[in-house]
Amino acid sequence: MQLTVNGEIRSFQGVADVAALVAALGLDGRKVAVERNLEIVPKSLYGQTWLADGDRIEIVSFVGGG
Asked: Residues near 24 by Cβ (< 8 Å), separated by ≥ 6?
């Protein structure tokens, strides 16, 4: 499946939902916000939000600091 992740077209296999995508990218799901096709995905729905070929995903990581 091809997804556009943060503006870059990438290919993934075995990634069916947002939770799997976040894991495949090596990100901590507690520290990111995900948008799928211009709609924010609530963290509670990452495992229930299915991905389809051609989806546009934007992921923002939260960074702490002072």
From this structure: 12, 15
